[in-house]
Automatic annotation (TrEMBL):
Belongs to the ATPase delta chain family. It comes from Ornithinimicrobium cryptoxanthini. Its main location: membrane. The keyword GTP-binding does not apply. It comes from the Bacteria. This is ATP synthase subunit delta. Keywords: ATP synthesis, Cell membrane, CF(1), Hydrogen ion transport, Ion transport, Membrane, Transport. This protein is part of the stalk that links CF(0) to CF(1). It either transmits conformational changes from CF(0) to CF(1) or is implicated in proton conduction. F(1)F(0) ATP synthase produces ATP from ADP in the presence of a proton or sodium gradient. F-type ATPases consist of two structural domains, F(1) containing the extramembraneous catalytic core and F(0) containing the membrane proton channel, linked together by a central stalk and a peripheral stalk. During catalysis, ATP synthesis in the catalytic domain of F(1) is coupled via a rotary mechanism of the central stalk subunits to proton translocation. PANTHER family: ATP SYNTHASE DELTA CHAIN.
Amino acid sequence: MQGASRSALAESREALSQALSQDTDRARLGEELLQVARVVDANAVLRRSLADPSREGADKGQLVHRLFAGRVGDASAQLAAHIVSRRWASETDLVAALEQCGVEAILAQAETEGRLGQVEDELFRFARIVDGTSELRSALTNRLAPVEARTALVRQLLAERSAPETTRLAELAATHRRTRFDHAVDGYLAIAARRQEQLTATVTTAVDLSEEQVTRLTTALSEQYSRDVHVNTVVDPDVVGGIRVEIGDEVIDGTILSRLDEARRRLTS
């Protein structure tokens, strides 16, 4: 998001934090914000009206109250009205903000239950499985496939062995109208990391790391960045040996493959 939308998103997150600090059903709040987002996204006239920068914020908030009164709870209606009353640079930014707040409320529920870290791990690993299985990737990313079929597939794969929030967010990513599955999951993982006030590192090696090695690496990275670091491990035999660490936009590549590629570039330059 750029310009006005960045400020609007920060204000929306602050309002969400206030709502979550109350005696609120976080799971219900999240689902109802996602419901509002779906309705707004599906109606071009409504979407344009709510994102119109020339329209008074109070008017847009009142419109949301009229449309969703009785369809969602008071807390959800008030928060949705606050979000749409901000000044957004585009219609898609408004829909994205409603979705992000809905996802964060669902993750906040996982946090309340003491399983936010579990959800983060499960989402990451499921995304890696999808990425590495062509048949599964096609089934979940085919926009022509019925939403019900993609939802049923996610539930079949996850419902019996994962946290309920993991299953719900995987369903959401698989049925997203605008965003690719992997990009959607990356966004959810970023929200989870932010709620835990930590950085997330993706570590790629040729073989599995032992629990002790992961612990030592986590400690070293946390000391280097002066913040808690959550480590997600990926095994990729193609890297041959060594280790590759990605934290945000920073990449520390000490794999043999990267060294071989560098040697090739030098030989051909």
